[in-house]
Amino acid sequence: MLNEMTLNILNHLKLFGMARSLEERLNNQQHAELSHAEFVGLLIEDEKAHRENKRLKLLLKQAHLKHTSAAMEDINYRQERGLNRQVMLQLGNTQWIDHHRNVLFTGATGLGKSWLACALGNLAARAGLSVVYHRAPRLLESLHRARGDGSHLRVLAQLAKIQLLILDDILLTPLSEEQRVDLLEIVEDRYAAGATVITSQYALKDWHERIGDATIADAICDRLFHNAYKIELKGGQSIRKLESVAQGAIQ
Q1: Prediction pTM value
Q2: Percentage of the chain lying above the pLDDT 70 cut
Q3: What is the per-residue DSSP string for 111-166?
Q4: Domain boundary assignment for the chain
């Protein structure tokens, strides 16, 4: 009866992690000799783990990652594509996010740029940081629509607050004047205030021309390139195609 009352109180106080583990730990013979303080300490750790897992699920849901299972520990270094293991190990520590540094992945399609970007997003979410993934063309189109319904400034403000923003397939299509301005606003708001991961099929040397307006291109490139990790992927074969062939062989 006492345990049932305790469970009701824990649930009423929204201590769901403690409530879930209480009965299990009471029935565990290994915990019989624990002091009251030690037993309560374990329950508190269970509550902490429960809240951290709940927050992680929420962060990953809000992130909308294209590759939800991408993880740094699963990076494929066997396929030759110019991926520096030492650099990726550095990125495995979230200090670069705390220092508001950018990561720029460039290279041909199929080399895993989007997957790597999502792996960094997964890493950030597991560290308790806010993450949002966007395909750049769709984001710019949504900003165009936001101008019409009056939510444009609000959307830009939301993008500025995200601790790690992922922009996939940037400069895939020529930018309009409006899109150039929107991209500049995003980059300007996040400069020295948030970390940004960007993927593009175009080499960094071509970004200036792809942006289209010399003055705006200077401003965008200067802010993105400064203190950024610049990772150019190279390879004759698409990893996507190779994995597809390998999977077919297994089946």
Answers
A1: 0.78
A2: 92
A3: SSHHHHHHHHHHHHHHTT--EEEEEHHHHHHHHHHHHHHT-HHHHHHHHHH-SEEE
A4: 2-62, 64-250
